[in-house]
Design goal:
The chain has 95 residues and is of the alpha+beta class. The protein is 57% helix and 18% strand. The protein has a two-stranded antiparallel sheet. A two-stranded antiparallel sheet has the order 2-3.
Length: 95
Amino acid sequence: MKITIDLNKPFTDTDGNALAEANQNKFLAKLLAASPAGDALKQWDWAITLSKSGVLELDESDFQALEKFVKECKDATTLAKAQLLQALIDARLCK
């Protein structure tokens, strides 16, 4: 069963205000594309898909790999990681 992750949304600040020019899909796509670790072909494919559509459909194994990537990413702030992880939690609850 596929899990659909929709990251077509902006990051928000601690007051809940949208951050201009800070979309979750584009940010995660850049992190994936720039990462020196992991499955390069898979991460490149995810980066392109996120950049174009903002939506990924992943099986459980790939979902776990993406979740691990976000949790372990050293190039993302707590603000970004928390919101990306919340989007993953929400996607898993809706599968």
